[in-house]
Amino acid sequence: MSKKNNQLSGPTIQPRPAMRPIHRVKGMKDIQPGNYDAWNFLLRSTFKLAEFHGFERIDTPVLESFALYERSSGRTSDIVTKEMYSFVDKSGERLALRPEATPGIVRAYIEHGWFNLPQPLKTLWYGPLFRRDKPQLGRYRQHHQLNFDIFGEAGPWAEIQLLFLIHELLQDWGIKAQIDINSLGCADCRPNYTNELVKYYKEKKHREQLCPDCRRRLLKNPLRLLDCKEPACIALAQDAPQIIDYLCGPCKEHLVKVLEFLDNLGIQYNLNSQLVRGLDYYDRTVFEVVMPSASAQRPLALGGGGRYDHLIESLGGRPTPACGFALGLERLLLNLEPHKVAASKERPDVFLAQLGEGPRLKSLRLFEELRQAGLAVHQSFTKESLKGQLAIANQLKVKYTLILGQKELLDGTILLRDMESGSQEVVDLKKIKPILLKRLTKTR
Ligand SMILES: [Zn+2]
Ligand SMILES: [Zn+2]
Fold it and tell me: If we measure between CA atoms, which residue out of 325, 45, 22, 3 comes closest to residue 168?
């Protein structure tokens, strides 16, 4: 036998390189244990308030056809030209991960004939959006938005209701933000204004100071020059003609009505002539919720919206006036007070503690029974020591803790501990449910 054959046969096994962990994609974020308390605080209060105001919850898919955004957001918008995640799928169809919510919502409105439902139709939408822009404070490449829309209301009442809702939500959340408002006019009056604007920026001394982006935008989308973030462009925008001086009669009247209502309701706002929102589809009223911030150069926008009376028509639907606003969840979360979140957490009534194998099994059944009776009951069946379980009960600030040990299991009893007074009594296991129900309804 040759020396070679004496060796073990089979492929040589290379030492395995250490497995490197795979990281999340740039600009994406995980929601980790404990994070959801704040999300729940925002979402629960929103859903509740929206219901009071008669908003119906809707959803749309994450994937839409690329053409939808090209047609709605504008071919030259930053969203379509720079920020959209788009790809051609295996059947050759060009698709996009939704970069904003409104086009999808409008598509659904048309596709399912929501104009047949009683109008104005008020909808609430919540979900993730995807934009491949530079990650910034509170803005991720996948971020979440709440969208409120009102369809079929041409009058200023739609804006009023939306702004009132924003105001209420901000109060509930304890966020002291400012509402900026402007009008972009209509197809009759805006062209006069944009002509004046272009004239202003084309003056040699102004044009020379513009950033390269704005020089390019000047012909395609001159309104965007007003909200450019470059310091030189910000300075130029201060002295630019203001759209308010160019509004036609009906547009002016509409804006005045909105502002009057806000004054009446005592909702503070800031009339901001440089607010343009960066999308092609807005008419008349636009608004933004901004957080004045000491560190950032510009105030942080928590959300915004406006009227889009022609978007439905331009996407192939029948002419329908509409108005909406969106709030960015991640940015709202940055501005929440932790104590508000903590106070909003629902406090369970009862904690169920157990000691040993038999009691644990029995308490599982009891847990189910109490829960079905409508009691908010918590447990920690994975914890063995009574000390550990009582620590959790204290943390949860429950009113009562039930303790089931071997002795109680044999006797058919359970210990009922009043967490406030510390007093403890032995109770017949069969009677524990009615006793708890009685005591808890008294204190509720
Ligand atoms: Zn007008
Ligand atoms: Zn610029």
Answer: 45
